[in-house]
Design goal:
This protein is of the alpha/beta class. It has one domain: Aldolase class I (TIM Barrel, Alpha-Beta Barrel), CATH 3.20.20. 33% of the residues lie in helices and 20% in strands. The protein contains 8 helices and 10 strands. It has an 8-stranded parallel barrel. It has a two-stranded antiparallel ribbon with strand order 9-10. Helix 1 packs parallel to helix 8. The longest helix has 15 residues.
């Protein structure tokens, strides 16, 4: 169980930016593998460590609690870690590899890549080779949650084949296009945020359920 348990034929699902108890309960009932908590105050999806801790208490064993950070200081990181029982860290800013490894301190972590034209996939995976996963997101203004897909065809097939077991695909996914993404790339997991929202930062229960159903249909 968990987001990074690679099983060919079963794509793991992360829903990011959850803020309420009903968000959590809907995601769990639908069969989510991980939920993401945004610790980046400018985001409309941001939560405090205390709220995250309350929401995490509703998660069953085997569902990862992912902490999303953007260029957080060591003090900010430790304040989150002291309160919220995060099981997987997501570094979504400009953190260096050594920063990620030091902060995670033995816990699993993944590094987000903001994929634009000419993105150097081999250089990225070499630089962040210690990461447990690579989260591929679109290059948008700000840090994630833009609802914009990137050109999946631009990902070198040799790179995908070598790294599929630790690729988490993000960036503009929704119930309509996630099947195509899975068929093309066969990632370990997919990650959605704005694609299951009725308004910016407001999760829609029906869209969350539809997304996970679409992933299961693609696997089948």
């Amino acid at each position: 169980m968990g987001l990074l348990t690679y099983s060919p034929g079963r794509t793991r699902v992360k829903i990011c930016g959850l803020k309420t108890s009903s968000d959590i309960d809907t995601a769990v009932i639908a069969g989510v593998d991980a939920v993401g908590f945004v610790f980046y105050p400018p985001s409309p999806r941001a939560v405090t460590p205390n709220i995250a801790a309350q929401l995490i208490s509703r998660l069953p064993t085997g569902v990862d609690a992912v902490g999303l950070l953007v260029n957080a200081s060591e003090a900010e990181f430790e304040a989150i870690k002291a309160i919220a029982p995060i099981t997987l860290w997501q570094f979504h800013g400009d953190e260096r590899p050594e920063d990620c490894a030091r902060l995670a301190n033995g816990q699993p972590w993944m590094k987000a890549a903001r994929v634009g034209s000419g993105f150097a996939f081999d250089d990225f995976s070499l630089q962040y080779g210690q990461a447990n996963a690579f989260l591929l997101d679109a290059l948008v203004e700000g840090y994630g949650g833009g609802g914009v897909p990137f050109d999946w065809q631009g990902i070198p097939q040799t790179w995908v084949s070598a790294n599929a077991h630790r690729v988490v695909l993000s960036g503009g996914l929704n119930a309509r296009n996630v099947g195509e993404a899975i068929a093309r790339l066969h990632p370990c997991a997919v990650d959605v945020s704005s694609g299951v929202e009725s308004d910016r930062g407001v999760k829609d229960p029906a869209l969350m359920t539809e997304f996970i159903k679409a992933v299961r249909a693609a696997d089948a």
